[in-house]
């Protein structure tokens, strides 16, 4: 059976066609999978499990149908939905993974991660990430009224878009370097975990990279985003990896 991996759907009420495609994928191909792994940024923004958004309820119901059908679903936090908590997980019937998770795929250890921790050249983002992952910050944020949290998310998204546009206008080559993974961080991560395969998202640059790490042949698989199409990685029982687009 095939194991499926997706990330960076950025589901949002403003793009209902992508949410619809996700529902079709869950009720279709995913029903025949051994397991489904969602490696972060399932949502464009998530400000707490108490947000009664229609998109959140649609996703939870779809995932619950899948898990009730016997397909386990595993979720890893991304930079947009790191506040997804146990309440949502219980509602959706999914398992929350740590930010670095090693799983066995047909006997081979594979490292799963969202991928943002590999972008170490983006110092501004890494500083923001450190702040927002602090337990004290999270507690203060979740204690705010829902309206305030939603306003913060909207402001943060607008600021991020403005920063990226400014970076592209100033130096496109530098933008591509800063927003992609650091080769040093990739090599260090492979060496730290001592395995040959890594799967992540975040950079929106789908590809399968074959690299040498200290004399060992390693494979870094990058998942695609769901902005202009869907994107899925199918890991076959023989270890073959197939990255495919899903048309809207």
Automatic annotation (TrEMBL):
Q: Which residues bind Mn(2+) 1?
A: 8, 10, 41, 204
Q: Write down the required cofactor(s).
A: Mn(2+)
Q: Does the keyword Cell membrane apply?
A: yes
User: Is the keyword Hydrolase assigned to this protein?
Assistant: yes
Classify the main location: membrane
* Binding positions for substrate per the UniProt entry: 79-80, 122, 160, 165, 168, 202
The residue ranges of the Calcineurin-like phosphoesterase domain are 1-206
The superkingdom listed in its UniProt entry is Bacteria
The stretch of residues making up the signal peptide is: none
Per the UniProt record, which EC number(s) apply here? 3.6.1.54
Topology of the protein relative to the lipid bilayer:
Peripheral membrane protein
- Enzyme class at the top of the EC tree: hydrolase
Where found in the cell?
Cell inner membrane
InterPro entries noted in UniProt: Calcineurin-like_PHP (IPR004843), LpxH-like (IPR043461), Metallo-depent_PP-like (IPR029052), UDP-diacylglucosamine_Hdrlase (IPR010138)
Q: Which Pfam families does the entry mention? A: Metallophos (PF00149)
Q: Which family does it belong to?
A: Belongs to the LpxH family.
**Which protein, by its recorded name, is this?**
UDP-2,3-diacylglucosamine hydrolase
* Species per Swiss-Prot/TrEMBL record: Lysobacter hankyongensis
